[in-house]
Write a structure and sequence with these properties.
446 residues; alpha/beta; globular
């Protein structure tokens, strides 16, 4: 756990374990929590900032390592992304090589680290650059130069952003530096709320489509640039976690000279398209409204970047300036312009993935699932074929409401009344505008 000034690691662990998501585990196995031990660590530091005595304990006792720490910001500065997503892989390999009982090193990558190909196999591609060379470049060159948009674009080449570029380099590092380590790679696509575990709909951030759900749910987001016919390759967060555990068992019990790769995706198994997500999402948002919506949830996806830009100005920016002006005149702090600017930045980051489509091989995933016993398939489920998308989207919306906005589901009736009120206010304003424009048209042309 990364140290926090003034708070002991053990206190931070206790705070983490007090979360609602661990309630079920505490009921079924009360002694499990007491067996969890945390040490200070920070992936930005040399040797992760781990104390010598803690490192020695890891060397003597650890047998399975899950490496999922990374920056997942699509627009992260290149130098920071390299440090977190590439240098950290080298550090992890160095530590794992010292471990006396290591049976599995599970590296969590991304399904989008090879987007230069339309069909992506379960293998590590050696066409993504030299990780050592990039690290040396970052050491020798002024960060301001490397992080400039023009220079970053030249360095990442055919990658859409620094995230996918550095995650691809991280995979290459595993091949060049991993040696005889028992390594396995998990590549999830767009990770969203939980399907079943620890709770249906559980999530804790606004990354990816969750930001769209949250913005649309509050009535702020009215337009998104997207291709409706493209597959939205979503995977609930518990799926790659279960797959990682099963893959660790596989590499530990059946060692492999090559590095096994598992594409954790949904498109070839149980696809949902962005257009379906738009329809299902809006239906769920209106069924389970957020508290105190700014406007009645509505809007639509736009398949033209130009039209979307126009709609962003008219439906997002102008209302934000109007609301902030009114807030300023009333002596309140204006916040909507800043909210809209952050929302537009987040939208821009995911546009590439919402307007393109890829196909992934999942042979290794399917074979691994067949090797599990029926009991293990239930316990460590990573088969998405039984997922009902309409039901899942309902849970996703409720989860965003409950776990992101901290809104109790007991307030749903109150939220529905407020949402209904905003619906009629919207209709009245639309009628008023229709009358005004009708009179203006009559005055100009009749």
């Amino acid at each position: 756990i990364r140290p926090k000034k003034g708070i002991d690691t053990i206190v931070r662990l206790e705070e983490l374990m007090s979360a609602k998501i661990f309630d079920k585990l505490k009921e079924s196995s009360p002694d499990v929590i007491s067996r969890v031990e945390a040490i200070n660590g920070d992936i930005t530091e040399p040797s992760f900032g781990i104390r010598k005595e803690d490192e020695q304990k890891m060397i003597e006792e650890v047998s399975v390592v899950f490496h999922s720490a990374a920056t997942i910001k699509f627009d992260e500065d290149l130098t920071k992304a390299v440090n977190l997503n590439v240098v950290a892989v080298f550090t992890m390999i160095e530590i794992c090589k010292k471990m006396k009982k290591l049976q599995a090193l599970v590296h969590v990558s991304t399904a989008y680290c090879n987007t230069q190909y339309k069909h992506i196999s379960e293998e590590i591609y050696q066409t993504n650059g030299d990780p050592v060379g990039i690290i040396e470049l970052c050491k020798r060159t002024d960060p301001a130069v490397l992080n400039s948009p023009k220079m970053t674009a030249q360095i990442i080449g055919n990658k859409p952003n620094t995230y996918t570029f550095t995650k691809a380099l991280g995979e290459s590092a595993l091949v060049t530096e991993g040696g005889c380590l028992p390594i396995v790679v998990i590549r999830p696509s767009i990770v969203v709320a939980a399907w079943r575990e620890p709770l249906p709909g559980w999530l804790e951030n606004l990354n990816g489509p969750t930001g769209i759900v949250a913005g649309a749910g509050k009535g702020v987001l009215r337009t998104v640039y997207c291709k409706r016919e493209k597959i939205a390759d979503l995977v609930p967060v518990d799926i790659p976690i279960n797959l990682a555990i099963a893959a660790a068992w596989k590499i530990a019990s059946q060692p492999s000279n090559a590095i096994p790769v598992y594409n954790c995706t949904s498109g070839s198994i149980n696809p949902i398209r962005w257009g379906q997500l738009e329809t299902m999402g809006m239906a769920s948002i209106r069924k389970y409204p957020m508290e105190n919506v700014v406007w009645y949830p509505g809007g639509s996806y736009k398949e033209s970047a130009t039209i979307n830009k126009i709609c962003q100005v008219t439906l997002h920016s102008l209302p934000a300036y109007l609301m902030d002006t009114m807030a300023y005149m009333m002596g309140k702090k204006p916040v909507m312009i800043r909210v809209v600017e952050k929302m537009h930045k987040a939208q821009k980051a995911i546009e590439y993935f919402a307007t393109n489509e890829w196909a992934w091989s999942t042979d290794n995933v399917e074979k691994l699932n067949m090797e599990l016993t029926e009991v293990d398939r239930q316990t460590f489920n990573f088969d998405l074929s039984a997922l009902s998308w309409p039901d899942f989207i309902d849970d996703y919306v409720k989860g965003t409401r409950q776990f992101v906005f901290k809104e109790d589901l007991a307030t749903l009736d109150q939220a529905r009344r407020h949402s209904d009120k905003m619906f009629w206010i919207e209709k009245c304003l639309q009628i008023l505008l229709f009358i005004v424009f009708g009179k203006l048209f009559t005055w100009l042309f009749c």
